[in-house]
Amino acid sequence: MTHTLETLKDYWRDLCLKHKDVQQFMVGNYYDSANSGNDKYPLCFWEMPYVVDMDLNKPVDRIQISLNVFLLTKQDDIADAHAAISLAKEIGDAIILKAKKDSSSGFIINNANGISVREYTDDYVAGIRWDLTLTVQREMCDYNIDEYFNDVVE
Fold it and tell me: 130, exposed or middle or buried, with CB in 10 Å at 0-12, 13-18, 19+?
């Protein structure tokens, strides 16, 4: 199964929203809850940009993405933020392990690295930012590359 960046995002959106605790999934360059005001937590945020490492000797790409899990917290409350970070880790762990177990996903999770975040925006949220490295089959390969170009007419 090949993946475009769009199908990867859709796969992770669907998986995140199947988690019993996750209330919302959003996509963007950076999370700014003050822009919408209607966010529901726990929330998963698919962060752009992507890092793509194209293996020119194989029909695969290694794609690095960031998946954030955020919970709303009380202002300047370290204990509440720590509890939110802990729960965000549990949610992220479950989502990542479920994706790893899913043999129909069409990709391999090579690495997952998380860092805690706190008071990330104008609203008070805390959680984990997961950087995931995935190996995916490339949509196009050498044998079909000419299909993407018009013939040159002289």
Answer: buried
